[in-house]
Each structure stands twice: as structure tokens, then as C-alpha cells.
Amino acid sequence: MKKLLALTALSLAALGAQAKDIVDTAVAAGNFKTLATALQAAGLVDTLKGSGPFTVFAPTDAAFAKIPKADLDALLKDKAKLTAVLTYHVVPGKVMAKDVKAGKVKTVQGSELTISTMGGVMVDNAHVTATDIAADNGVIHVIDSVVLPK
Length: 150
Prior knowledge:
- The N terminus is likely disordered.
- The radius of gyration is 17 Å and the shape is globular.
- The protein has 150 residues and is of the alpha+beta class.
- Helix 3 crosses helix 7.
- It has a single domain, classed as FAS1 domain (Roll), CATH 2.30.180.
């Protein structure tokens, strides 16, 4: 039994030692399946596996579920629009929660997100529900809604 526990601990340590980029980290979390599908459809997987660093405001599967199915299906088929929406969720650099300041921040898409810090952190109209999920090439902050560029 002790050997099994030791082996399990070693296996977990080895898993933790493997490099995990933004995409691998999101997939491993288990609640970003729709985001992973959207990143593949938009051809952005390799970008977010790149050196970065990136700060990603990642909508959960529940956030994507707020979008009517027909609208989400249409978005997933429109690569240009999907790419614009997804890159609007990404900010260059690694911004940890302690460094977040209220105001406008330029996204990879080119538009600006509005960050507010009154009564919890919000990104446009989405609440940040979890912060500082570290990846080798950046950080993920979880949001409860999909945000759309203006």
C-alpha cells in the first residue's frame, strides 16, 4: 500500500512537472470544452500554445451556454467573427489578479475591454469568478459570460 501511494505521488509530481500552456491548462480544468472547440474552429490553438505571455479571460461552458444554440452554432461556423470574439478575450502579457486595475485594456483583437473593480472584478459585463490559473505561457481568469467586441 505504501509503495502504491509513493508511486501515485511520484506520478502526480511528474504530471505537475510537465509544461502546460494556456490551452492544455484550460482543457485539463474540464469546464472549458466549448472554449477549446471554439479555439480549434478558429485556428487559434497554436497561437495560445505559443510563447506568449497571454492573459486569457476564459468563459466557462456555462458562459457559452448562455448564448442561444443557433447563435453559438453560427458563430462556430464563421471563422472571422469567431476569431474576433475569441481574441477579444485575450490580453498580451501576464496580468495576475493583484495587478488588475480598473480602466480600459487593449485586447489581441484590437478593441478595448473595460475592467471594473467595484464589488468584484468585471470584464465588460462578465464577472470574474476565478483568478490566477497559471500556465507556462500566461494566466487564465475565469469569467461567467462571453464578452463581445464593440
